[in-house]
Amino acid sequence: MELLKVDGIGKNYRNKTVLHNVNFIIEQGEIYGLVGNNGAGKTTLLRLIGNMLRPTSGKIVLNKEHFKSKVRIGVLIERPAYYFDMSAYENIKAKALALGVKYAPQDINGLLELVGLHNVGKKNVAAFSTGMKQRLGIALAMVGEPDLLLFDEPINGLDPQGILEIRNALLKIHAERDVTMIISSHILDELAKTATRFLVLNKGSIIKDCTKEQFVSECGDKAIDEYYLQLVSGN
Predict the structure, then answer these.
(1) Is residue 89 situated within a structural domain?
(2) CB atoms closer than 10 angstroms to residue 71
(3) Mind listing the pLDDT tens digit for each residue in 93-124?
(4) How far apart (Å, rounded) are the C-alpha atoms in residues 182 and 109?
(5) How would residue 71 be classed by pLDDT, with cut points 50, 70 and 90?
(6) Residue 37 lies in a domain
(7) How far apart are CA 163 and CA 156, in angstroms?
(8) How far apart are CA 169 and CA 173, in angstroms?
(9) Number of other residues whose CB lies within 10 A of the CB of residue 84
(10) Number of domains observed in the structure of the chain
């Protein structure tokens, strides 16, 4: 089922064009790996989809028959506004109250379980590692049971253990809640372990929209990052 359509989106900042005539469709249940060099427009595109920015041209069309809940899209693009002197449990409760969502204790504990923080739910966030804070950020994005999650570089700056924990959390959310996701990352090998489709953004335009299997197959004997560099260089 079509969840969302990006239709001819363009975005300008003063005299600079960041995105130009971007078109693609987000299908329910997929995990989209969004890749592109620095400055390609990935964060801007996620902000537009998340209704944090307005496009200069084009439009983003939601499937209104599908989106029936008040909270439609969960976002982890910048570091969430944690309450560091509060626990993970209390942070989720505060987010639910801010959104006007009724959350029973089992709902909050369920989110903590989903991201692997159930054993530290009562621990103040100030004592969390970077990876734990990122997983809490994912849980906060899940408040309100959104149909679409947007993540911008969720594993940036994490060690291998932290990366594994984020991957496991995302895969568990997808398997248990059937949530559609768009995840931007520079680490293609890791993204390929999570994504079901790839979107390649280059110089403000989508130059590749395919399944992960197609993308990996087209790599041939090349490493996935080597193939990607060839793709964006036009060679």
Answers:
(1) no
(2) 17
(3) 999 999 888 889 999 999 999 999 998 878 89
(4) 25
(5) very low
(6) yes
(7) 9
(8) 6
(9) 11
(10) 1
